[in-house]
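Figure caption, in words: inputs first, then the predicted bound structure.
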Amino acid sequence: MTVQIGQIKIGGPAFTVIAGPCSIESEEQFRTTATAVKQSGASILRGGIWKMRTSSKSFQGLGSSAFEFIKKIKTEMNMTLISEITDIRQIEEVLHVVDAFQIGARNMHNYSLLKELGHQPKPVLLKRGFSAFIDEWIKAADYVTSGGNQQVILCERGIRTFETATRNTLDLNAVIYAKKHSPFPVIVDPSHAIGISSLVPQVCYAAAAAGADGLIIETHPNPAIALSDGPQALTLENFDLTMRQLEKVLHAFDRTLNKPV
Ligand code: PEP
Ligand code: MN
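Bound structure (manganese (II) ion present):
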């Protein structure tokens, strides 16, 4: 099946790249990022409004204070936005701002939140929990679809293993398996999977070669001063270089990139 966000179809023959900052930090940061990633070929934006941080003292996101400038930038850019929600009450609050809801790894098992998303019209990007079996992840999607909303995209973002050299361990098996054993499009988050920006491009190419339907990539105009996940963010220049190489990998598999509208 395919899932449509705006005019972009995810899960068809074309490959989709979603890109943007981990957190939306300011109007300027978001506009600069959106302009550059669209220019490089990303067709959907990402950006955190409410952040799930390990420490309660870390930046928690701009929340509703960012809604007006986010809507303005989306209109200027003619682009759609996917953003994470962490609480049932945020569904209604942010429905007029986002085009698809992201459920983060920490909330994959939050079945009441998933059930509620089954009763609203926008697509749901369901990340795999960092200790979830593939089967639990695919079954979690049913909590959305059983409410009526069939538009689920699965996202492999790396799991916890004994390995600590990289932030997580990308499970490409999960991508291949979920493509075969679930009806949903499957995308990869290379940024959280490896957690090291210089190594993110190769993860992108591997995911494309493995048959993923797309990528969700963290990018930042100046990763050194990012308020979250700077070490894994691609600069806008490196994002562009990565996109050019990615197109070559896709062509080798007779696939093309979903072009921004
Ligand atoms: C994110 O996308 O910024 C994020 C917090 O991801 P995850 O839920 O996969 O950790
Ligand atoms: Mn992040």
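Residues 22, 192, 218, 228-229 surround manganese (II) ion (ligand 2) (CB under 6 Å).
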